[in-house]
Amino acid sequence: MKLITTLGAAALAAFAAAGPYVNNFESPVGPEWSSTGTSSFNGTTVLGRFDNADVTLTLSGFTVGEAVTVGFDLYILDSWDGDGTTYGPDHFHFAIDGVDQLNTTFSNVAGSNQAFPDAFGSGSHDIQTGADNKDFSHGGTLPDGYFGNALYIFGGAANAQFAGVATATTMTFTFGASNLQGVGDESWALDNVNVSDGSAVPEPCTMVGLGLGAAAMIRRRQKA
Question: pTM of the entire structure?
Answer without folding.
Answer: 0.82
